[in-house]
């Protein structure tokens, strides 16, 4: 009888321990490692600075991203993370385990959309890209790109940020606006230029603006990376001889993207950037060049060339005389209907000024 009572007491104590100690521990362990759902429920949470852990956990439970706010708070406390959560916007789904959600908030892995700016893109192409990908508003981007107050803030003396938006991949968070993205891109340009090109530009007696402007032409003209320095040499040679650069992309800048044949109408259009009609460099860049194009602008190849024409395979034929160049134009720009009437044939059309043919 005494043994039975002792046995029952033991079972009772064991049941109490199981009920109040082991089961909660098991419940907690299952909670931190198990998603609340299948991943179909997706929510974006704004974790503002100073927001309490309890408030965050309640929001997560209310959105059914986690199954228990109380256990989420307990998890953070046991791990010592209550004061380590970083502010920002986060994208969670109910297929994520609570331990992963907490880890992301501690690491500051905020929700951001990747935006890659290709080398050579102009502010107009960037605006289109932002619109197409629903990242930011293209119209507002162009407004900010020309915003005098923002230009003063960034120390840019031109009419826009053209040329100073460094081609790279950027994380665009939900809180960023068009001006914030521009600041980020210009900051990256400033860093790269200061680290790699500032000394070289001084050695060549070129201002940063001149270097970037020339680089933007090279970026638009060069298809094959290995030709950048050679194309740069043509521009340097022509500048030295005070010959007009007559670069096709400048004839359509601000009108349309340079993505095909440039017409006679294009090269005769009066714009401040059209190097068929103006002397020297355009007043500013016509796109946003990458490091390789800037390097080519500051370190041209040594060559006698004054002309080049596209060979329709991505490469160019380079010439030293106008006669040789016009022969190349006839060779490489013939179609089944004869020679195309483009900037590439302007020397034959006008026969009054040497020219060079840009990329097709």
Number of strands: 8
Shape: elongated
In terms of DSSP E residues, the strand content is: 5-15%
- N-to-C SSE string, H for helix and E for strand: HEHHEHEHHHEHHHHHHHEEHEEH
Number of separate helices: 16
The strand line-up of the biggest sheet is: 1-2
Helix content: 40-55%
The radius of gyration is: 31 Å
Written description of the protein model:
48% of the residues lie in helices and 9% in strands. With 360 residues, it is mainly α. The relative contact order is 0.09. Residues 335-360 have low confidence and may be disordered. The termini are far apart. It has helices at 2-33, 53-62, 69-78, 98-107, 123-132, 138-145, 148-154, 178-196, 198-203, 208-221, 228-240, 248-252, 264-267, 291-298, 322-332, 346-350; strands spanning 42-47, 88-93, 112-116, 169-173, 307-310, 316-319, 334-335, 338-339. It is built from 16 helices and 8 strands. Helix 10 crosses helix 11 (228-240) and helix 10 crosses helix 14 (291-298). The longest helix is centred in the N-terminal third of the chain and has 32 residues, at 2-33. It folds into 3 domains: 30-110, Dna Ligase, domain 1 (2-Layer Sandwich); 113-196, no CATH class; 198-350, no CATH class. The strands form 4 sheets. Strands 1-2 form a two-stranded antiparallel sheet.
């Amino acid at each position: 009888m005494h043994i039975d009572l002792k046995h029952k007491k033991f079972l009772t104590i064991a049941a109490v321990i199981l009920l109040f100690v082991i089961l909660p521990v098991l419940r907690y362990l299952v909670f931190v490692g198990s998603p609340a759902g299948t991943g179909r429920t997706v929510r974006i949470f704004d974790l503002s600075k100073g927001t309490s852990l309890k408030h965050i956990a309640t929001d997560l439970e209310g959105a059914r991203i986690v199954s228990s706010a109380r256990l989420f708070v307990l998890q953070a406390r046991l791990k010592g993370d209550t004061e380590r959560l970083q502010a920002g916007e986060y994208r969670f789904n109910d297929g994520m385990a609570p331990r992963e959600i907490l880890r992301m908030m501690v690491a500051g892995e905020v929700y951001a959309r990747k935006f890659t700016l290709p080398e050579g893109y102009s502010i107009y192409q960037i605006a289109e890209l932002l619109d197409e990908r629903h990242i930011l508003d293209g119209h507002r981007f162009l407004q900010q790109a020309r915003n005098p107050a923002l230009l003063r803030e960034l120390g840019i003396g031109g009419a826009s940020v053209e040329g100073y938006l460094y081609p790279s991949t950027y994380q665009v968070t939900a809180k960023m606006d068009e001006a914030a993205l521009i600041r980020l891109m210009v900051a990256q340009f400033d860093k790269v230029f200061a680290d790699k090109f500032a000394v070289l530009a001084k050695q060549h007696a070129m201002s940063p603006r001149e270097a970037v402007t020339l680089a933007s032409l090279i970026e638009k003209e060069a298809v094959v990376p290995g030709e950048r320095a050679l194309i740069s040499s043509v521009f340097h040679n022509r500048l030295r001889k005070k010959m007009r650069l007559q670069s096709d992309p400048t004839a359509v800048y601000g009108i349309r993207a340079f993505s095909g044949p440039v017409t006679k109408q294009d090269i005769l259009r009066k714009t401040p950037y059209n190097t068929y009609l103006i002397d020297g460099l355009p007043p500013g860049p016509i796109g946003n060049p990458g490091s390789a194009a800037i390097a080519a602008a500051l370190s041209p190849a040594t060559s006698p060339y004054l002309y080049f024409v596209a060979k329709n395979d991505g490469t160019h034929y380079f010439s030293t005389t106008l006669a040789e160049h016009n022969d190349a134009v006839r060779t490489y720009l013939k179609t089944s209907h004869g020679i195309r009437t483009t900037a590439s044939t302007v020397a034959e059309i006008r026969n009054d000024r040497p020219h060079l043919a840009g990329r097709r």
